[in-house]
Amino acid sequence: MSGCSSSTDSTAESPESAPVAAGKVDEIAAMVPEDIKAAGELIIGVNIPYPPNEFKDPSGKIVGFDVDLMNAIAETLGLTPEYRESDFGKIIPSIQGGTYDVGMSSFTDTKERERSVDFVTYFSAGTLWAQRPGGNVDPDDACGKKVAVQATTHQETTELPAKNQACLDAGKPAIEIMAFDGQDAATNAVVLGQADAVSADSPVVLYAIKQSNGKLEQIGEVFSSAPYGWPVAKGSALAAALQKALEHLIETGDYETIATNWGVEQGMIDKPVINGAVN
Question: Which ranges are annotated Polar residues under compositional bias (predicted)?
Fold first, then answer.
């Protein structure tokens, strides 16, 4: 599960953003590292588009579930969010180098990534497949099928190579893994009939199905759930501040309000943790 698509610009229909009046909480804001507190801004690295989590509306404004949630987090911390677009693969190195304070691009918290940065978990996402209506793709036996994915995601680097190897070991035709720079392009490949199915993070696929006007349908159920997290510099006190701010939004109900507005309430978590990778 990866994160966002490449820097290809995209817009999509979206519900009206429902900003919550979180308000600054002094005792939580006091946990913010002094340099960030003095600047008054939270510098956030983001890769677009990845609807419904982060993308641009028709006016060019960055919107989405992640955005509304991060805005509420920043308000709780008494900071102004400053979003800076980036290639997905450059966000974590930029956090390590001090260019960004935090990343916000549907990052799956993994053990490997935790070696480079710390994560604060905020959501649970799995993998989900979709196809054109009437298709006959089985995610557990997609041998000989063309499957679209976003490049560098968990689906391209881990899920599909393992499933392809199982096909080969069984003497079946290989899976043709079609990797695209952007998730929107991968999804569109299925709509256009260039691919048999698409595999991506569950909230992304569910949103794509909703937006497809009947041109896509879900295959099976969500599997391999893992936490999304916000990456911050290793050892930074910002992690604890973000964790406490999210706990506060969960308690006030603002977290649920934001998730429900974007139709992703199935992935809500009860308690954020620092470095909660499952693998």
Answer: 1-14
